[in-house]
Structures are given as C-alpha cells and as structure tokens.
Amino acid sequence: MLAIGYCAAVRGIGAYVVRVEVVGIPTTDIGIHIVGLADRSIQESKERVNAAIRSSGFLFPTYKVVVNLAPADVRKEGAAFDVALALTILAMDQQLDAHRLRDVVAIGELALDGSVKPVGGVLPIAISLKQSSHRRLIVPARNLAEAALVDGLTLFPVHTLTQAVDVVLGRGQPGVSSNGKPEHFDARSQHFDEDLEDVKGQERARRAMEVAAAGGHNLLFIGPPGSGKTMLARRMPSIMPAMSCDEALEVTTLYSVSGLLRHSSRLLTERPFRAPHHTVSAIALAGGGSVPRPGEVSLAHHGVLFLDEMAEFSRGALEVLRQPLEDGAVTISRAGRAITYPANFMLLASLNPCPCGYHGDRLRGCSCSPIAIARYLSKISGPLLDRIDMHVDVPRMPYEDMSTRAKAEQSFRVRSRVEAARTLQRVRLGPTGTNAAMPAKSLREHCALDDRARPLLAAAVMKLHLSARAHDRILRVARTIADLAGARTIETAHLAEAIGYRSLDRSRGID
Q1: Which of 3, 34, 146, 441 is the residue whose CA sits 20 to 30 A from 506?
Q2: Cα 473 to the chain's mean position, in Å?
Q3: Average confidence score pLDDT of the chain
Q4: Which residue blocks in 56-102 are alpha helix, DSSP H?
C-alpha cells in the first residue's frame, strides 16, 4: 500500500514542502530504504524511526519499506523529517488512516524512546506554509512559540510520537491558532546593560559612534591598548534605532535557520552584536560548509559585526567581507545550487596602530620598525579600507578623564538624536533607506555641495589620494552629520567633520 505524508525542508532562509511517499514491498530485505537525495543525517534516521515506533507501542513493518522524498532532484538535510517518516510508515502499514495525512505537515526529530525533540528552521517553514495549501502543522512543543510568530496556521505541539499519532487520528488536543507578529511590538522598551554613560572621556569617539549609528556607517577605531575601543564598541547597540517588527522577523528567521532558537523560541527584538574571535575562518565569517549555514556576517544582519583587533584576523577572512559590505548579502555557491543570505550589517572594528600597540602614543614609546608597522597594517587591504566610512583615532585617556566623577551622556539621549536623523533619511530614501546605503545616483540630489564646500573636498581627494568610493562615502557621512544638525543642505563644517573621520587615509594613501 502507498501512503503519502508531508514534511518541510529549509533552503537558504526559505523553505519548501517535501512529499513523503512510502510503499511496502514483500521481501526478506526488511528495513527502511530512503531515496530522493537524502543526506547522511536523514539516512541515519532509519534507526531512530524504527526504535521510536517500537518504543511508542506500535508495530514496525516486517517487510521492505521504501521511502521517496520528493522533489527528488533537491538535496535534503537534517533530522526534521523523523516524525513525518514515522507517521507515513504507520499509515502505509494501516496502523492509522492514510487519508488523515493529506493536509498535515509534520516536523521534528525523534529520540529512541519516541520523544520529539526541537529542530532548527521552524520559522521559515511556518512562513512557507502560508504560500502552500497546508495550514496544519505538527511541531515539537518546544518550537511552538517560534511557529506561532506566523499567523494563519493551526499548530499542534507534541512531545512524543504517540501524541503526533493522536493528532492525525483526531484524538489529540485541539490545534492552536497562530497569532502572528506580536500586537504590541515595541523594541524601544528594551534595556541595555552596557550604556554610554559608563564611558569616560573620548568625546570624539563618542561623536563618531553617534554619526555611524545615525547613518548606518561602518566605523574603525584606531588606538593603543586600554584606550576604550572595545568598551565603546560594545555600547553601539544601545544607541542604534530600535528594530521594526519586519526586521525582527528577518533576524529571527536567520537565527532559526542556524539552529540558534531551539531553546529560546521567541522573536528577537535586540539588534544582533556579533564579535567573532580573530581566529575565525573565512567560511565561519561568510557562511558555507558542506551543508550551507549562515555565517557571522548574516547573523549580524540588521545589527553590528565587531572585529576586535582587526589586523589579527587572517587576510583571507577579511577579504570575504567585501561582497557583503557592498551588496548587503552573501552568496554561497555549491555544486548545482547557490544560496543567498542577507548580510546588511554595520561593520565596527578596532585596530592597534602597530604590533606593539603604542605607535604615536604620547607616554609610551613604540618598539616596532617602520617595516613591521607597514606589514601589520597591510593585512587590511585598500579595497576593504575603502568600504569603511569612518576611521577614528582613540588616544590614551588622560588621568583627569579616568578619575572624574562626572557622568557622561546616557545612551537613550544619544539614541533619540539618532532616531530623529533616521526619520529624515526614511522620508528622503524610503522606509528602509539609510545614508550609508544611499544609491550612487542619489548622491547628486541629496549630497550636493555649495561653492565653498566643493574646493574643500577636491583638496582632500588630491591630498589623501582618495578613491571614487572613498569620495562618495565622505559625502554620505557628511549628509548624516547634516541630518543630525537638522540642516537641509551639507555645509562646509559638516563636510570638514566627515573628512576628519578618515585618519588612516591621512597616514597612508589608498591604491
């Protein structure tokens, strides 16, 4: 007898319904045989499904069971097929009504005792079902909150295979109607443990952070050890605008695909802050692997990717940043397929000025030779440096700043100015527009310079040997500074401040 059930598989940040076809063949070759481009994890599910069926009090067929996962030309990975396989095998063996499987999609991993374990990718699966004819979803109980973020579905949370069988037979608890996005979503109410008021001194660096947050610009801090670069960087999310509900759903989907929501199925409302170690590989940074997964650049989507001590990262890892910094996405190509993950993040990095860290320091001498300094900084290529809008010196703090009892400005006050500047950008560029991502064709309209400002920019381009990309990024930063000041046009002071945020260009030319 042929039985047909349904599961779903993740592809990129999307998903598709998989048709599970099961047929029994009388032969002495007893067991499960799976076809349809199933990877090793699915092949290993044969023993899990067999043990789970027996542990749950059902009979396992005493003949050959052939399973086809359609479409057969698309490779399938993961353990989320277990529950659907078990249900369809039982239907084929007439231990439950096969017709009841027609409108049900089942996902979940089975343990040997028949319990259902949570899986990754539930959110994109639930989203994909809204575009299909299936509206009933059997889901691991610990993934219920994640699936409930999508409206229009009837969800059946289960802890065991027996409960899943009861759902199919209509004997289980009634389904739960998914509510979709939270009705009172407000990411602005979140609390940050790290606040800018904790940072003493470094007024120029704090100002640079405000400008970067207001326009979505990439930012590089250069300074000696202990000057506060990392402390400043970790407080960047506290001054960034709150995420919209759509942005939160995108971020949550990426974390679901990565398997990072299995034990915390909720909508993520805080902007991501990813800080990989400098030993991270290019694949871990950009994404990939034999089973492609999002990398750090995608996990930082709509948030911050922080590279502490940037020159310590390998040249290969740093160079993979060039595509996502330019396109806001990263494409991973494998044989016969290509997967694109979003990667619209703010790059925030710190850098010592030399290997010992004290080049240019007023109180401590540098022990590095000019050749060693050049070799150290050469890890950051000109094209990559071009894509970082702002390079800001963070000098050693004087004792007076460290010992002062006066409190600095709190993050929420800076954030209010940042959000006001973002409001102007949305009016100018659209609901998702930022100055950092302003199209080149819009620069002439929105970043026009007057007769006094044009000679200043021309002199900077000639003296600093700026590329066309660096020229445009200076204009975008100047536009953000004008927005923070509430100015309709870019004035000379705004442009001069933007040029001042190119300290590495002042110390070396860009080829």
Answers
A1: 441
A2: 24
A3: 90
A4: 82-92
In sign, the C-alpha dihedral spanning 486, 488, 491, 494 is positive
Distance, in Å, from the CA atom of 227 to the CA atom of 85, rounded to the nearest integer, reads 58
The single-letter DSSP state of residue 75 is -
Q: Within the chain, what is the greatest distance between any pair of CA atoms?
A: 90
DSSP of 153-197, one letter per residue? -EEEEESBHHHHHHHHHT-SPPPEEP--S-TT--GGG---SS-GG
**Angle of the 411-429 helix axis to the 203-215 helix axis, nearest 10:** 30
pLDDT along the chain (511 residues), means of 10: 93 93 88 90 91 96 94 88 97 93 95 95 92 90 90 94 95 79 58 86 94 97 92 95 91 91 74 96 89 92 96 93 93 81 96 91 88 89 90 86 79 95 94 90 89 91 89 95 94 95 66 36
Q: What is the pLDDT of residues 225-250, one digit of tens each?
A: 988 999 999 999 999 999 988 899 99
Alpha-carbon span 116 to 164, nearest angstrom: 9
Q: How many Å from the N-terminal Cα to the C-terminal Cα in the chain? A: 70
What sign does the CA torsion over 244, 249, 251, 252 have? Answer: positive
Q: How many residues does the chain have?
A: 511
Amino acid at 333: S
pLDDT tens digits, residue range 141-156? 999 988 988 888 999 9
Mutual angle of helices 453-464 and 468-485, in 10-degree steps: 140
**Is 447 exposed, middle or buried, given 0-12, 13-18 or 19+ CB atoms closer than 10 A?**
buried
CATH 3.30.465.10 fits 2-177, yes or no: no
Contact 253, 124 (CB under 8 A): yes
Residues 119-132: b if buried by 16+ CB within 10 A, e if exposed: bbbbbbbbbbbeee
d(CA 385, CA 503) in angstroms, rounded, equals: 11
d(Cα 39, Cα 427) in Å, to the nearest integer? 48
Residue bearing tokens 């046009």: 489
Mention every residue, 6+ apart, whose C-beta is less than 8 A from residue 409: 196, 197, 206
Does pTM top 0.85 for this prediction? yes
Delimit the CATH 3.30.230.10 region(s) of the chain.
Answer: 2-177
Instruction: Put residue 13 in one of left, alpha, beta given phi > 0 → left and psi -120 to 50 → alpha.
Output: alpha
Selected from 3.90.79.10, 3.40.50.1980, 3.40.50.300, 3.90.550.10, the CATH number assigned to the domain covering 187-434 reads 3.40.50.300
CA distance 422 to 431: 10
